[in-house]
Amino acid sequence: MNEIEQFILQQPVDRQERLFALAKLGRSLPNVTECISYNMPCFKLNQKPIFYFAPCKKHIGFYPTPNVITKFQEELSEYKTSKGAVQLPESRELPIALIEKMIAYRVEMIQGEH
């Protein structure tokens, strides 16, 4: 069991499925490393963060970096956002397709920096 799995298994049982779903998205990417950073699960490419996530009281915080939030601002209009975060409410299904698009955009950004 790795750090992220340990982190998720320490969360309330009713929240673990959603957290494992986000971890699965990160693990599906090639050449990705995973770690705990800022006390949150994090997936990186070329030592740069793709995204972080963490359970909060009534939502999951998804942190794909500020440029991604700006790029997808219109599609995120239904969600509470801040400079680098999206609040994914517990009361709604995870928007997997949108999260995948944001992750893909972030990966493209990182790959373009080389």
Tertiary shape: globular
Give the CA-CA distance, first to last residue: 32 Å
| Number of discrete helical segments | 4
Q: What is the average of the pLDDT values?
A: 95
Main attributes?
4 helices, 114 residues, alpha+beta, Aspartate Aminotransferase, domain 1, single chain, five-stranded antiparallel β-sheet, 5 strands
Written account of the structure:
This protein is of the alpha+beta class. A hairpin with a 2-residue loop joins β2 and β3. α1 runs antiparallel to α2. The model has no long low-confidence stretch (mean pLDDT 95). Pfam families: DUF1801. This is YdhG-like domain-containing protein.
Short description:
Helices cover 39% and strands 25% of the residues. With 114 residues, the protein is an alpha+beta fold.
Secondary-structure map:
Layout: H1 3-9, H2 13-27, E1 33-37, E2 40-45, E3 48-55, E4 59-63, H3 66-71, E5 86-89, H4 96-112
Antiparallel strand pairs: 1-2, 2-3, 3-4, 4-5
